[in-house]
Amino acid sequence: MFPDLSSASPTAALLGAAVGLVLGLTGAGGGIFAVPALVFGLGWGVPQAGPVALLAVGASAAVGSAQGLRAGIVRYRAAMLMAGIGVCLAPLGSWMAHRLPERWLVGLFAMAMLVVAARMYRASRGGTGSAGAGGAAGACAPLPPCRMDPSTGRLHWTRQVASTLGVIGAVSGFASGLLGVGGGFVIVPALRRFTDISVHGVVATSLFVIALISAGTVANAWWHGMHPGTQGWTFVVGAVVGMVLGRALAPRLAASRLQQIFSALMAVVAFGMFAKALGV
C-alpha cells in the first residue's frame, strides 16, 4: 500500500527531482547524489538511505531508458548480461553494507563520489573528441575489445565481449548493493572505454542496466523488510519527474558545461561526506 503523499514535506520531492534531473541529463552520476540527498536533506543514515535511493534511481532510470528502447539504441543483450550478473552480486554488497561501520561506509561513498567527479570533469574537458564511433581521435586509438558489427549494427559477440561486460556488471551490481547507487558511474565510463557503442547508446544502455539492477536490489531489500515510508515515496516520485525533465532538456544544453558544474557540486558533497565520516 502506498502512503498518502499529501502529508509529505516538499523537501523530499525537491531532492528527488534534483537527483532525477542530473541522472536524466548525464546518464550517470545522478544516482550517486541520491544517498547524500537523503543523508543531508532528510537526516537518514546511509544503510537506511541506500535502498530508497536505489528505488528512486531505478524508477527514474526505467522511465529514461524507455526513450532509448523506442529509438532502438539500447544494447539490450549487453544490458541483460550486465544486469543479470549485477543482480547476483548486489546482495553481497548489501550484506557488507549492513556489517561495515557507518563511518567506513560514508568514507567509501565519499571516495566513490570523488572518482566520479574527477572522471566527469576530465570527460568534459577532453572527452568530446573521441565520443563518436569514428572520429579522428578514435582512428589513432587502439580498438576496444567490444566492437559493433557494421553489417548488423549490433555488438559482435565473442567470449572476450561476454567476459568484459560480465565484469562491468559485477562491479556495478556490487557497488549498487554496497553504496545504494545505480552503478552508472561504473557502467558509462567502462562502456566508453571498452566498447565502440555511440555516446547516446552508452547512456541509454546504462539507464536500462541501472533500472534492472536497481529492481533486483530493491526487491531483495523489500523482502528483508525495507519500506520507504511517506518521505521515501515522495523522493521517488520527485526523481521520476526530474528524469522526465532532464531527458527533455538534455539535447538543448551544453553537455560539457553541465558535466563541469555537476562534477564541482559532486566534489563539494564528497568533502561533506568525508567530514561526516570523520565526525567533524
Describe the structure.
By secondary structure, the protein is an all-alpha fold. The protein has one domain. It is built from eleven helices and two strands; from the N terminus they run ααααααββααααα. Helix 1 runs parallel beside helix 10 and helix 3 runs parallel beside helix 10. The relative contact order is 0.24.
Average pLDDT rating:
79
- Give the tally of β-strands: 2
Approximately what portion of the residues adopt beta-strand conformation? under 5%
From the spread of the alpha carbons, the general shape counts as globular
Q: Helicity range of the residues?
A: over 70%
**Total count of helical runs of at least 4 residues:** 11
Report strand order across the widest sheet: 1-2
Low-confidence stretches: 1-6, 128-139
Structural class by helix and strand composition:
mainly alpha
Report how far the terminal alpha carbons are from each other: 40 Å
Order of helices and strands: HHHHHHEEHHHHH
Biggest sheet layout = 2 strands, antiparallel
Number of individual domains:
1
The radius of gyration is: 18 Å
